[in-house]
Write a structure and sequence with these properties.
Blueprint lengths: L4 H5 L13 H7 L1 H16 L5 H4 L40 E4 L9 H13 L5 E4 L6 H4 L2 H13 L8 E6 L1 H12 L8 E7 L13 H10 L20 H7 L3 H4 L8 H7 L4 E7 L15 E3 L2 E6 L5 H4 L5 H6 L3 E6 L8 H8 L1 H4 L1
Parallel strand pairs: 1-2, 1-3, 3-4, 4-5, 5-8
Antiparallel strand pairs: 6-7
Helix pairs in contact: 3-9, 7-8, 8-12
Length: 357
């Protein structure tokens, strides 16, 4: 039996078309879920996260490796750090803000203990342990977004309106420098002294070394410059500078490495009272470790290390490092140890004095 003409004229309905992701894009899109699932699985199976290095791979906890108990990441960590001999009154001193690195949180006991050393050394000093991009979000949130979150947090604190000193651990140091170059001296309070501890300022040439990233890195390598992972922002392939300059989402810009320079980046960095760079000379988490002092591989030879003063960025003063150095405001420090595994004595006698001098 033939269908009626009215039936034939009606539009045919079809199932909705689902957007098709390329296999590479699909894997990258679910990478954060894979990370979270791996952490949850380890927690449920063993009653604890596999090890501090799994999620807190580069934070203060790494200085005292210990398994994390049930009750939340960082709960109950028996950590303490040495302080310098206290001054009589620190209430008139510049406030200090500490910022954790990837996988950590300002509320975790290790960071709280580190922040307390400043309060103990300078009684009355206003000290903030910033809770910005805490825990897993510090891994899955691009640095530009972390900088925005940090800016909102300090803008909301009236005690910081006239400026503050800042201490950044690992990727926290990158976030703070990004804040100086893009936010400080605008609507946001300025950073006066920046103390950077083991931050990969010139980039990394290898995936971060930890149990967690042994799972994540194969996914990240599918899109090393665009994956929604924080360390994609500072990946720098030493064997392919052209692709780095073209595709880098954050680092090539903030280091003023492209042809068109942002003069504001240099101007703002040049206003720092002091820029302290602390490098761990046996660091295997950050490769190469000279990146913590703005050094990197020679762009003409991926096997030759260039210390800071030999880099084009220093010689051409891309972000004001030469200006800071020649005016005595750039301090380069080292300790013979692993990533963030400095001694109490180094912290108390070398680092803390920069906050109160």
């Amino acid at each position: 039996m033939l269908a009626s003409s009215s039936t034939l004229s009606e539009p045919l309905l079809s199932a909705p078309v689902r957007p098709q992701l390329k296999p590479c894009a699909w894997v990258i899109a679910i990478a954060p879920a894979i990370i979270a699932a791996a952490l949850l699985l380890s927690y449920l199976v063993s009653g604890e996260y596999l090890f501090v290095q799994l999620v807190h791979f580069d934070e203060t906890h790494l200085m005292r490796p210990i398994a994390l108990p049930r009750g939340g990441m960082g709960a109950g960590l028996p950590m303490s750090f040495a302080a310098v001999a206290p001054v009589a009154d620190g209430s008139s001193l510049t406030p200090v803000v500490f910022l954790h690195g990837m996988g950590d949180a300002g509320s975790n006991p290790g960071m709280q203990s580190l922040c307390q050393t400043a309060r103990d050394s300078y009684p009355g000093m206003y000290v903030v342990c910033a809770n910005v991009a805490n825990d897993l979000s510090s891994i899955t949130t691009p640095l530009a977004e972390q900088i925005e979150e940090f800016a909102r947090s300090v803008q909301a604190d009236p005690k910081l309106k006239d400026g503050f000193h800042a201490v950044g651990l690992s990727t926290g140091g990158l976030v703070l420098r990004g804040y100086v170059e893009t936010k400080s001296h605008e609507a946001s309070p300025p950073i006066k002294r920046l103390i950077s501890v083991c931050a990969p300022h010139a980039g990394i040439a290898a995936c971060p070394s930890s149990s967690l990233f042994k799972l994540v890195c194969p996914l990240w390598r599918l899109a090393p410059y665009t994956a929604r992972l924080a360390f994609a922002d500072y990946w720098k392939d030493p064997s392919d500078t052209a692709t780095y300059l073209e595709r880098s989402r954050w680092l090539a810009d903030i280091n003023n490495e492209r042809v068109h320079k942002n003069a504001e980046y240099k101007r703002r960095m040049s206003t720092l009272e002091r820029y302290v760079l602390i490098e761990a000379t046996n660091d295997t988490t950050i490769s190469p470790h000279v990146s913590e002092s703005h050094g990197y591989f020679d762009p003409l030879s991926a096997e030759t290390i260039q210390p800071l003063k030999q880099t084009e960025g220093y010689r051409q003063d891309f972000i004001g490092l030469k200006t800071l150095d020649e005016s005595g405001r750039l301090n380069q420090l080292q300790y013979p140890g692993e990533h963030l595994k400095f001694t109490d004595e180094f912290w108390a006698n070398v680092v803390l004095p920069h906050l109160g001098e």
